[in-house]
Design brief:
The protein is 51% helix and 22% strand. The protein has five helices and 15 strands. It has helices at residues 2-35, 87-126, 129-177, 183-227, 234-259, and strands at 40-45, 48-52, 57-61, 69-70, 75-80, 262-266, 271-276, 283-284, 289-294, 300-306, 318-323, 330-334, 337-344, 358-365, 377-382. The strands form three sheets. The chain has a seven-stranded antiparallel sheet, with no helix packed on it.
């Protein structure tokens, strides 16, 4: 009985001490919590760039997927500078321009042959060796130039068609993997590509030979002109109209290549595909946003001080940024920029979801090593 009484008295004496220590613990916890209490909320932002279409056309392929990591220079989208509805018209127009160019080249060849016949007749009638040689070399040079032009008039359209087939093969491969196309469609495209590729290679060999012949002819003509002190200008005058016509044809082929080119959009930096707004086959207009790419690590926090709190913040003010998710992290930084006027605060930071708020923007650089995500909400408190 006495033992129980002693224990009761001991507990009675110790109880105030327990209460006192408990109160101290609660105060300490509250103090620590108060010390980490945030004054503002901000949003972590990574550098983001919008990838826009530079021409009106349709998307042939998008070889990346949402949230995929990409390297600088990696292909993001391939655009063809015409719409799907105009594809057949453009193909027909290409063939028509090709036929017209070939017909005009044949006409130029006929004019060159006529000029050559006149020069030969002159040679027999007058036996003027220097003049005849000068004419002969001038005709040979233009014939070599015309031969190059004729090969290119068929080679360049074939090269464009080959590019189209290469892109089409990649698209069909993706569709086959997704069970959206049959395997025979891929085989058909690959066969057409192989046939056209062989034809292009043969034409390229002919073009290389024609260019070599042209260069050799030009060198012979230059050597001849250097040996003759006073060179007659008769051939230059007589061939001037034909040379001008050949120049027109060369420019026409260059325009044909330019208007049918394929546009490849690439990643401007190492990053992550954050949004994709279009699919392969869809039409885009110049300036349309196809996708956005963000850098993998946020670079700054953007917060907004309401009108009543504006006076508490200024550039170079020291602040502490605190993560609001586990594991808890923090770092000290300072305000680097402040907005020049009030602006609408992002809805997710409104204290009352139905009541819009306005504030002055505050930009705070994120220190290296701090782990957070693009668009993550962070806490901010000022430091004295």
């Amino acid at each position: 009985m006495k033992l129980q009484l002693k224990k009761s008295r001991l507990l009675t004496r110790m109880l105030p001490s327990f209460v006192w220590f408990a109160a101290i613990g609660v105060v300490a916890v509250l103090f620590l919590h108060q010390s980490e209490r945030v004054e503002l909320q901000g949003i972590a932002y990574s550098y983001e760039q919008t990838i826009n279409s530079v021409e009106t056309g349709y998307i042939r392929s998008i070889p990346v997927s949402l949230y995929q990591t990409v390297k600088k220079g990696e292909t993001l989208a391939v655009i063809k500078e015409n719409t799907v509805a105009r594809q057949e018209y453009e193909d027909a127009s290409l063939q028509a321009q090709r036929a017209t160019a070939e017909a005009e080249l044949e006409q130029l060849k006929a004019q060159l042959r006529a000029a050559e016949d006149r020069f030969v007749a002159d040679q027999h009638e007058h036996e003027i060796d220097v003049l005849s040689m000068e004419r002969r070399m001038a005709v040979d040079l233009e014939q070599a130039r015309l031969e190059i032009l004729q090969i290119r008039s068929s080679l360049e359209p074939d090269r464009l068609s080959l590019k189209d087939l290469e892109v089409e093969i990649e698209i069909v491969k993706e569709l086959v993997q997704q069970n959206a196309a049959e395997a025979y469609e891929l085989q058909k495209a690959q066969t057409s590509h192989a046939v056209l590729k062989e034809q292009v290679m043969r034409s390229e060999e002919l073009l290389a030979q024609a260019e070599a012949d042209y260069e050799a002819t030009r060198l012979r003509k230059d050597e001849f002109e250097q040996k003759v002190p006073v060179r007659p200008q008769t051939a230059d005058r007589e061939l001037a109209p034909i040379r001008q016509a050949i120049l027109v044809q060369e420019k026409r082929i260059e325009e044909l290549i330019a208007q049918r080119d394929i546009i490849v959009l690439v990643a401007p930096f190492d990053g992550v595909v954050n949004t994709i707004n279009y699919k392969a086959g869809q039409t885009v207009v110049r300036g349309d946003s196809i996708m956005t790419v963000v850098k993998p690590e946020p670079e700054y926090v953007m917060a907004w001080a309401t009108q009543k709190d504006i006076g508490r913040f200024d550039v170079n003010l020291r602040v502490k940024v605190i993560s609001q998710s586990a594991p808890h992290q923090s770092f000290e930084s300072q305000v680097s920029h402040m907005g020049a006027s009030l602006e609408l605060i992002p809805e997710r930071l409104w204290k009352i979801p139905t009541t819009p708020e306005w504030g002055r923007s505050i930009k705070i650089p994120i220190q290296p090593g701090f782990q957070c995500l693009h668009n993550e909400v962070l806490g901010i408190k000022t430091l004295l």
